[in-house]
């Protein structure tokens, strides 16, 4: 009988988690074709099965989208760092950022770096009203003048966007102004600083015991008690992340009052495999690309 680990191609060996998960199916295929001296057919059929499984059968279906991968590749390490320092569940933060920013595609997050859609506190710079076009062909708001020039006039629908009331994390002298709206698009370093500042604000100004929002205060107290009982590793538990999401949203006077908000955030967390992703990076010392492929 063919030895799965010795005779299979390198592709199989690199994807043994799929082979193990579907061993019975592969074994039946083996019996079907190998016993009639069709070893090559066995290999070809098995490759097809594994490819189908890899592309379509995973629970982490959001991982097939490049824009989702690119967004989380850019913020995962910073999110984990902030979560460890301030003792917050990282997968929940990643899921909230994905929903609130449209995986970084929303015009407010693109301009300001405010990936969590955090409202401005008194004294913070806010994104003012801006006049920007919507591209009918690209189905998005355009930020850069270079993008404007690449589109025909008939493709663009110009609209005055209202003052967002969200904190603008661009550096001075641009924060709080309508100048250089594409700064973060042009400067990856400034973009990273802005997004990291947003994550830091969430941990130090929002989910704190001194917050004026009861839901945030109670969530912080609950987390502290849980960590004292179970240890910091509990922050990487699925149930902890789900409960945190429920505690800070879906009720009046919370992060988002809409009842469907916790469900949407939780769906993103599960479909993108964010609990598993953060566990692989934190506990298994995987880099992002390897952890993202580990489905």
Fold and architecture overview:
- With 295 residues, this protein is mainly α.
- The chain has two domains: 4-57, no CATH class; 62-122 and 186-293, Lysozyme (Orthogonal Bundle), CATH 1.10.530.10.
- The chain is built from 16 helices and three strands.
- A three-stranded antiparallel sheet has the order 2-1-3, with no helix packed on it.
- Strand 1 and strand 2 (140-141) form a beta hairpin.
- Residues 1-22 and 52-57 have low confidence and may be disordered.
Give a short overview.
This protein has 295 residues and is mainly α.
What is the count of DSSP helices, taking H or I runs of 4+ residues?
A: 16
User: How far from one another are the termini?
Assistant: 28 Å
Taking the sheet with the most strands, its summary is: 3 strands, antiparallel
Give the ordered list of helices and strands.
Answer: HHHHHHHHEEHEHHHHHHH
Task: Work out the radius of gyration.
Answer: 23 Å
Strand order of the largest sheet: 2-1-3
- The figure for the number of domains is 2
| pLDDT < 50 runs, ≥5 residues | 1-22, 52-57
Category by helix and strand content: mainly alpha
Name of the CATH class of the largest domain: Mainly Alpha
Helix content: 55-70%
Q: What's the total count of β strands? A: 3
Give the arrangement of secondary structure elements.
Elements: H1 4-7, H2 10-13, H3 16-21, H4 23-33, H5 39-57, H6 66-86, H7 90-101, H8 107-112, E1 130-135, E2 140-141, H9 145-149, E3 156-161, H10 183-186, H11 188-206, H12 214-230, H13 238-248, H14 261-271, H15 274-282, H16 288-293
Antiparallel strand pairs: 1-2, 1-3
């Amino acid at each position: 009988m063919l030895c799965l680990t010795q005779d299979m191609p390198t592709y199989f060996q690199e994807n043994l988690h799929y082979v193990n998960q579907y061993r019975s199916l592969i074994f039946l295929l083996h019996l079907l074709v190998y016993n009639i001296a069709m070893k090559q057919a066995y290999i070809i059929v098995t490759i097809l099965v594994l490819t189908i499984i890899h592309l379509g059968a995973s629970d982490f279906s959001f991982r097939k989208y490049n824009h989702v991968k690119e967004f989380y590749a850019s913020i995962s390490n910073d999110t984990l760092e902030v979560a460890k320092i301030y003792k917050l569940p990282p997968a929940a933060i990643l899921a909230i950022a994905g929903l609130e920013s449209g995986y970084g595609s929303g015009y407010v997050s693109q301009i300001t770096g405010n990936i969590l859609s955090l409202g401005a506190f008194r004294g913070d710079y806010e994104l003012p009203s801006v006049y920007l076009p919507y591209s009918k062909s690209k189905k998005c708001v355009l930020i850069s003048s270079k993008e404007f020039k690449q589109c025909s006039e008939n493709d663009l629908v110009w609209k005055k966007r209202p003052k967002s009331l969200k904190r603008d994390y661009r550096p001075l002298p641009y924060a709080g102004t309508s100048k250089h709206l594409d700064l973060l698009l042009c400067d990856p370093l400034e973009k990273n600083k802005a997004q990291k500042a947003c994550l830091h604000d969430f941990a130090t100004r929002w989910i704190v015991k001194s917050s004026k929002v009861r839901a945030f205060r109670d969530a912080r107290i609950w987390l502290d008690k849980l960590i004292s009982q179970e240890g910091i590793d509990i922050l990487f538990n699925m149930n902890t992340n789900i409960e945190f999401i429920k505690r800070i949203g879906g009720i009046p006077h919370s992060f988002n009052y809409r009842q469907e908000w916790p469900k949407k955030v939780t769906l993103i967390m599960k479909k993108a495999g964010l609990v598993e992703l953060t566990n692989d990076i934190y506990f298994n010392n995987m880099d992002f690309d390897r952890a993202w492929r580990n489905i």
